[in-house]
Fold this sequence. Notes:
Elements: E1 8-11, E2 29-35, E3 40-47, H1 52-55, E4 59-64, H2 67-83, E5 91-95, H3 100-104, H4 118-136, E6 139-148, H5 150-161, E7 168-172, H6 178-190, E8 194-205, H7 209-225, E9 228-236, H8 245-257, H9 265-269, H10 272-286, H11 294-306, H12 310-323, H13 328-340, H14 344-361, H15 366-382
Parallel strand pairs: 4-5, 4-6, 6-7, 7-8, 8-9
Antiparallel strand pairs: 1-2, 2-3, 3-5
Helix pairs in contact: 2-8, 5-6, 6-7, 11-12, 12-13, 13-14, 14-15
Amino acid sequence: MRTLIFMAALVICSFAISKAGNEEIVIGEKVTIKSKVLNEDRNLMVYLPQTYGISGKSYPVMYLLDGGYHFHHVSGIVDYLSTRGMMPEMIVVGVLNVDRTRDFSPTHVDKAPTSGGAEKFKSFLSDELMPYVNKNYRTQGYEILVGHSFGGTFATYALLSDPDIFDAYIAISPYLIYDNGDVIKNAENDLKSKYKNNKHFYMTLGDEPDYVATLDKFESIIKNKAPQNLDFTYIQMKDENHNSIPHLSIYNGLESIYSGWQIPKEKYKEGLAGIDGHYKALSEKYGYEIVVPEQTVNLLGYNYLNKKEYKKAIKIFEENAKRYNGSANVYDSLGEAYEKNSQFADAEKNYSKAVEIGESQNHPYLKVYKDNLKRVQKDITSK
């Protein structure tokens, strides 16, 4: 369908079991692109956040290697953490394998005839896949690379060889003993002393004795060089093995990358200024503008509403309506505040706006908006 520097075909895929008459649960779509760099078709699985269809927002992107193995559980992790305010909502792009030995290995070894294609695969990611994703989805410009085992080798190689492509990395049990530890041998020279933007590198290892020496060496190099703007974490999970470690590593890795994301309770006590200040600090940390989410401002408004501080609640909800004037929910909340303050005409006006927007979006809470509007109209009529 749409093209950039290569042909692309989009096929919508429902990753769900459905029965006649029942609604399908869709967690992603399948995309096939033709790569000129690799001279082959590459299949992807793409997960979009729950709010993608109605928010108009842009989102950071996770590029997930071995996508065929990890897409389902990783999209679940992202959905769980983001909907609980522990990280931002995020697009997940799972890259399915064609020849993982070729794509993930930085050097050629004779016993693996196709090996040594990591540089080409990196070009595919940076020159073809990422431009395609940025063109066809609303992206924020913050990218995370996740790789397990040989994929972790590639993630480490990507950090050392071209660190500006990705902002954060999760390397799970990286196979750094490949080719007699070639990546480790070059790490001393390839590791920069300073990165112009903040980088996060989260590395894990299970109960895998053969891997220990090379990962310890890599950790030692990073600690000795202590690059500026590189946040490095190495965790050994001795109760996990090579197959069990990915899920926990990705969950913990995202928590590590987004440590400090949640708003401290005291910021709510400072009101909207405190919340705005928190997100300003996050924007500086991650290198792009992070706006205060609609639901965060709404929560502040309901804090006032529950204390019966109606004028303060109205002021907050009015501000949220200015910031998110395409949201049905902000007008419904504002209508509720007006209703509780006995400003029924203003309540009706805002409930009506919520219904209008809700109908245009086929919003899942449309019935609630309509019920609220009917109730306040009935109150007005009775008076």
